[in-house]
Amino acid sequence: xxxxxxxxxxxxxxxxxxxxxxxxxxxxxxxxxxxxxxxxxxxxxxxxxxxxxxxxxxxxxxxxxxxxxxxxxxxxxxxxxxxxxxxxxxxxxxxxxxxxxxxxxxxxxxxxxxxxxxxxxxxxxxxxxxxxxxxxxxxxxxxxxxxxxxxxxxxxxxxxxxxxxxxxxxxxxxxxxxxxxxxxxxxxxxxxxxxxxxxxxxxxxxxxxxxxxxxxxxxxxxxxxxxxxxxxxxxxxxxxxxxxxxxxxxxxxxxxxxxxxxxxxxxxxxxxxxxxx
Length: 277
What we know:
By secondary structure, the chain is of the alpha/beta class. About 45% of the residues lie in helices and about 15% in strands. It folds into 2 domains: about 1-55, no CATH class; about 65-275, Glycerol-3-phosphate (1)-acyltransferase, CATH 3.40.1130.10. Helix 5 (about 145-150) links the parallel strand 3 and strand 4 (about 155).
């Protein structure tokens, strides 16, 4: 949408320039029109990128983010919605009718590629996802500041006490209706072959304590997205929402049992070839 608007504005400006210089009175418009259009696109994209850098520069990641920032959420959605078509990433969705239409939830999904959070943000745009992410992502260019403003929670996998603080923060976010929490229960990208690994059951305590349902989904064919982008190839990926586990079914079971149930749902969907030993 954004890229289309930029192209349209640039084309209109190029046509105006051709009219002003009298290019339409000869064949000069054949080279002036596309040249000025391209220049307009580059200038507008540059202005947009400069604005994004300015927004990120304003972010102080040492100051806790108390609520979801609507401006940064809007900009993130706009960039993602525009970037995916440019990068030729097409997403096929199924089972979206199983997602709660109101209220917050814990979203769990398999993790095969660094592009997975971007795809999930696109598919669950209206649900305001806040991801649990490894703390190393805090220093990433542009991504780190944007994550901070979207209430993404950094987790220290090497320190159980700090990890518990992250879990408690996520519970608070859900209880206060600030965002829905998304997590990759494998704990990160554990292989390059896109296989599903064992889960870390502690994250499921978030749904139990916050009393929210768990939305279980899988992503397919995302492991080659970055490779395809670098080789100017398109990617077709698939998001499948498998089941929403209601709050009532989380109360009388352990986090290990919830973890096993979610893992089995994903394993059944992905098939034996995509399950790690």
